[in-house]
């Protein structure tokens, strides 16, 4: 320390001033780094998992890319053809009013389609066709904090799984549905799996079709950060801190922690090009599932949760084949 002081004194006034400025800048940089991490992590959490207005995460398309718009166009065409079967429905759970649409095709079994983050029940129109052809009624829902449903936070499947149980009880108790199949996309898959493996899940739930299911949302978040070429160090931990602060849940827990309890028929649909829910973790999930009737169908190409638009025929045949093998074919 004395040597540094002596060196500083020996400098000319101009160099002393420069050294002082540099020293202050270094100290401020060290002090500002934690603050910048706190601010950046909050912004990421706030933009990704918190709804601030009813217009955010509404019922329109969540993106304007070609595949999203194609899916929406095909989905809306399905809606126009089948809207006569629609009935507006709603339930209240956890103090939140949740909105949905029930499509009655005269069957005693029903599929619930759980959309991913930023998507509403309108997203489910696109996935309806193979289920209707397999003899199912449909329940399409706005997850909490999406579409017309109440709520502020997306809890990446935790609280949403309790809503899933409530919707299932509504179907079986109020609409006299005999059996329910879950279909989930991304976070919707986590929602469905957490519901299905909970003690509160009604016995009428018969199985799960999961597209793009992640091991836990933390892994998916890390991959999003890497894709954007941002540093993970400290930032990810602080994002998880904000989630725990606002919702009481951690991104470190997810499907990989409960899938060993999955003892009902399971169909996993996954892309080998998925950079968010990586194939490595998808295989781990499949291997851990305890179901005696489990299948995984790999798609060589396709973005995360956009497999049907990549290979519609193969996707629909996988779903219909899984249903036929496990729950019976369509009644004549």
Task: Provide structural commentary.
This protein has 332 residues and is α/β, with parallel strands linked by helices. The chain folds into 2 domains: 2-42; 61-327, Rossmann fold (3-Layer(aba) Sandwich), CATH 3.40.50.1820. 44% of the residues lie in helices and 16% in strands. It has helices spanning 2-10, 13-49, 66-82, 129-133, 158-174, 187-196, 217-227, 235-247, 279-288, 312-327; strands at residues 86-93, 96-103, 109-114, 137-141, 179-185, 205-211, 266-271, 294-299. α4 (129-133) links the parallel β3 and β4 (137-141). The longest helix is centred in the first third of the chain and has 37 residues, at 13-49. The chain starts with a helix and ends in a 5-residue tail after the last helix.
Name the features.
single chain; 332 residues; alpha/beta; Rossmann fold; 2 domains; eight-stranded mixed β-sheet; 10 helices; 16% strand; globular
Number of domains: 2
* Biggest pleated sheet: 8 strands, mixed
How far is it from the N-terminal to the C-terminal residue, by CA?
Answer: 90 Å
N to C succession of SSEs: HHHEEEHEHEHEHHEHEH
Summed up, what is this model?
The protein is an alpha/beta fold and about 325 residues long. About 45% of the residues lie in helices and about 15% in strands. The mean pLDDT is about 90.
